[in-house]
Structure formats: structure tokens, C-alpha cells
């Protein structure tokens, strides 16, 4: 004969509650273990990083490294100063190159204006001023040179400073001509 159990429906519900509680507690325990594990791993990493930071700081505070650091800073300062000088010199070089009024072309133009009765002793170029000293066989050759120089497009003004016969060989005239070049920008 079989026994009839009237409490069977109630016992199944309590077993379901116990199984549900086991799942919840199991999940909570797993999450707690994960949190504790990551906390432990991160704490160990932080401790190791702090130790390596201390090691690096100790190495950096060593006298050898400090001397090398000072030398490196001095070299960097010198490099900075040299770069400034380099840029300043580059600017000067560019402005000098742009201001180069006297060229081969100008000298060839001056040479083409010289009459055959005349020869140069000295040709000085200072800034935009050309001073020509020489000798001529007659005064008209000096006048012709002045006229020819005045006709050059690069000349702003040309004038004869002096024509003198006393300092030259007999029958020759020494002269001094000053030419001012146009400012070319």
C-alpha cells in the first residue's frame, strides 16, 4: 500500500526557494571573489609601481646623473643661443644679399663707359657710393666719362670732385669722380 503525502506540494516550493537562494548566494560569492581578486591585483601593481618610482627617483638623485643633467641643460641653453645667433645671422646674410648693389653687371656697365684716353688708378665702393680715381690725357675724356656714367640706369647722381694737372705726369690730368647708386629695394 502506498502512503499518501498531503504535504508534497508544499515541500516542492520550499525546495525551489532553497535552490533560488543557492544561486543568489553563489553569484554574490563569485562577484565578491572577483572584486577581492582585482583589488588584490591592483594593490600589488600599485606597490610595485611605487617601488619602481622610488628606484628611478634614487637613480635620478645620484650625483652622476645630476652632473649629466646639468651638462645637458647647459648644452640645451647653448644650442638655443646658437639657434638665435644662426637666425640673426641668416637674416643679416639675406639682407646683405638683397642689398648687393654692386654686381658683375654694374662693373661691366662702368667698364663700357670708359673712354680710351682714360685709365683708372683706384675704384672704391662704399655702401651706395662709388669713387673712381684715375688719369686722363685730356679734360674732355673726364667729361665724357661723367656723361657716360650719368646715362647708366643704376646711377642716381655722378659728379666730378676734382680734375688736377699738378699731381699727374706732364700732359695728363688726375681726376676724382663720385657716383651714387640708386637705392634698389
TrEMBL record:
Keyword field contains Transmembrane helix: yes
First and last residue of the signal peptide: none
InterPro entries: Extracell_DNA_Util/SecSys_Comp, PilN
Presence of the UniProt keyword Transmembrane in the record: yes
Regions annotated as coiled coil: 53-82
Transmembrane feature ranges: 23-41
UniProt KW keywords: Coiled coil, Membrane, Transmembrane, Transmembrane helix
Record-linked PANTHER family: DNA UTILIZATION PROTEIN HOFN
Name of the protein this chain belongs to: PilN domain-containing protein
Organism: Clostridium beijerinckii (Clostridium MP)
Amino acid at each position: 500500500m502506498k502512503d499518501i503525502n498531503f504535504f508534497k506540494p508544499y515541500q516542492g516550493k520550499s525546495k525551489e526557494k532553497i535552490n533560488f537562494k543557492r544561486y543568489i548566494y553563489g553569484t554574490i560569492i563569485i562577484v565578491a571573489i572577483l572584486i577581492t581578486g582585482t583589488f588584490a591585483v591592483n594593490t600589488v601593481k600599485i606597490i610595485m609601481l611605487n617601488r619602481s618610482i622610488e628606484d628611478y627617483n634614487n637613480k635620478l638623485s645620484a650625483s652622476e646623473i645630476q652632473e649629466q643633467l646639468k651638462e645637458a641643460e647647459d648644452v640645451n641653453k647653448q644650442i638655443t643661443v646658437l639657434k638665435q645667433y644662426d637666425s640673426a645671422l641668416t637674416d643679416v646674410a639675406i639682407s646683405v644679399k638683397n642689398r648687393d648693389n654692386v654686381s658683375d653687371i654694374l662693373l661691366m656697365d662702368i667698364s663700357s663707359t670708359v673712354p680710351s684716353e682714360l685709365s683708372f688708378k683706384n675704384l672704391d665702393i662704399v655702401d651706395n657710393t662709388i669713387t673712381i680715381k684715375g688719369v686722363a690725357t685730356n679734360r674732355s675724356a673726364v667729361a665724357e666719362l661723367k656723361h657716360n656714367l650719368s646715362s647708366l640706369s643704376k646711377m642716381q647722381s655722378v659728379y666730378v670732385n676734382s680734375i688736377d694737372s699738378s699731381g699727374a705726369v706732364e700732359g695728363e690730368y688726375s681726376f676724382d669722380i663720385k657716383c651714387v647708386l640708386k637705392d634698389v629695394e
